Amino acid sequence: MQTWSLVSISVLLGVVVRWGVSLNSYSGAGKPPMFGDYEAQRHWQEVTYNLPVKEWYFNTTENDLNYWGLDYPPLTAYHSLICAFIAKTINPEWVELHKSRGYESPAHKLFMRATVLVADLLIYIPAVVLYCLYLTDGSSRKKVSTLFCFLLYPGLILIDYGHFQYNAVSLGFALWGVLALGLGWDVFGSVAFCLALNYKQMELYHALPFFCYLLGKSVKLGLMGRGLFLLVRIASTVLVTFALCWLPFLSDPSQAMQVVRRIFPVARGLFEDKVANTWCSLNTLIKIRSILSSDSQIYLSLACTLLAVLPSSVRLLTKPTFWQFKLALANSSLAFFLFSYQVHEKSILLAALPACLLLNDLPLMGIWFLQVSTFSMLPLLLKDGLLVPYVVTSLAFLFFSIYLLSALEHCSEEELRLGTYRKLFFCLPKRNLAWIVRWKFYISVAAMAGLSVVTVALDPPSHLPDLFPVLVSTTAFVHFLGTFVHFNIVQFSEPPNRKSQKKNN
After folding, report:
1. What is the C-alpha to C-alpha distance for residues 480 and 465, in angstroms, rounded to an integer?
2. Could you give the CA distance from residue 169 to residue 295 in angstroms, rounded to a whole number?
3. How far apart are CA 190 and CA 193, in angstroms?
4. Angstrom distance (rounded) from CA 443 to CA 86
5. 333, 351 in Cβ contact below 8 A?
């Protein structure tokens, strides 16, 4: 009973923080003609409510795709339609065709913020609670502490409630998939992940670990017996779930192909803004987009992504345990973020979810990565007027997560999973590696704080207008690349020797 009371308090505090951030500005507020992501979400409600399904993804006289045209899979469109019905009931002006463009009012802002919170409460937060209670180790206090830190992660809160998006929906479905697989409900997990993929195509970042885990498990059970039965059930479930999600578009092949073209816009180029991935960081030294053709950029990106994700995927395929699955999720999403095509800065949230899953197992590394992931989005957050929420939520997360999870007190070489490093690198100093990692963490936090202050307080040189965003993205890139290497090494090391791990496997 006491545990559930603490869970309720943690959830309540998480909701309070979310609503506090939502009281600030949002992407594109008062900035015509395109406004921002807030207007994109509102416009999708307008389009889905007023136009027939066959026109949602097509450029027509009534649907100008150059003005925030739908570019997410069907489940996002259905979600927009549900919100539109509610909006129409409250105030028809909010979704009036054409005339509602750029609509801004306190009442509408309250409505839009409420839709994000409701989605969080229905999908994301319950999955977080169940995962922390049933699939993490330790005492009830440690489980609740992990839950609170999970819910306090600033990156997701700032983007969904400040910048304004519904990332918690797709991440929530993915988390339900993780939870189901951890509990042995493989078919339900497949359905949940299919819903995540049909809500946002970026969930492809997590697709290979789901595929390799389920295939590896089926092979382990025997493809001439129980394993084959499991594989057939999962394959049937995936096909049926996709068919139901795409049903309105399947009668006409051109409709389905147009949706595919919209959700994979390769014409946009290798990258847009200052993103903390390989291509954007490398572009400061080598102008890749000038040297290589568009097709060459796509092939290079695809090849590098597959090579980066291959070791982790093969390891999971041969050792389909839940521990390996969580690490593969982190490694796959980081590989996609670092090397794939047309990455947005907000895509780091897809790598942040697996890091949250590892908070209980690798607290310091998880906290460190999550802090950097929030910092990597600093230019975007400043553009949206979210400086104060960024500072407050980042400091709160850093303090509570380190304190509640005892991240700095319990970080020996064994707990940090550093033993493999001594086997790989014989020239490492004899000094305790955990001591070195702690000092790197302190220096890293100081560097992020310093760059944050400099970015806000100083004007860049006139001949280097993008100096500070480039410094932020490059600094974050170095951290992400280091985390990617570390998690791959951890995945190939021996698994933790825990009773609960045996139970989950």
Report:
1. 25
2. 33
3. 5
4. 49
5. yes
Instruction: State the residue for tokens 């100093």.
Output: 429
Residues 6+ apart with CB under 8 A from 423: none
Q: Is 28 helix (H, G, I), strand (E, B) or coil?
A: coil
* 420 vs 406: CA distance, rounded Å: 23
Residue 505 to residue 496: CA distance in whole angstroms: 12
The C-alpha atoms of residue 114 and residue 386 are separated, in whole angstroms, by: 19
Residues in the chain: 505
Per run of 10 residues, the mean pLDDT along the chain (length 505 residues) is 87 95 87 90 96 94 93 96 97 94 93 96 97 94 96 97 95 98 96 97 97 96 89 96 95 92 81 85 85 88 96 96 97 96 92 97 96 96 94 97 91 80 66 84 97 95 92 96 95 68 43
Q: Please work out, in degrees rounded to the nearest 5, the angle formed at the alpha carbon of residue 23 by the alpha carbons of 18 and 28.
A: 105
Residues 75, 65: Cα–Cα separation, whole Å: 18
Distance CA 297, CA 302 (A): 8
Q: Residue 245 and residue 317: Cα distance in Å, rounded?
A: 28
Q: What pTM, to 2 d.p., does this model score?
A: 0.94
Q: Tell which residue, 341, 340, 287, has the closest CA to residue 309.
A: 340
Give the bridge partners for 163, in sequence order.
none
Structure tokens at 33: 């003609």
Q: Residue 342 phi/psi, 5° resolution?
A: 55, 65
Of 485, 475, 205, 472, which is closest to residue 365 (Cα–Cα)? Answer: 485
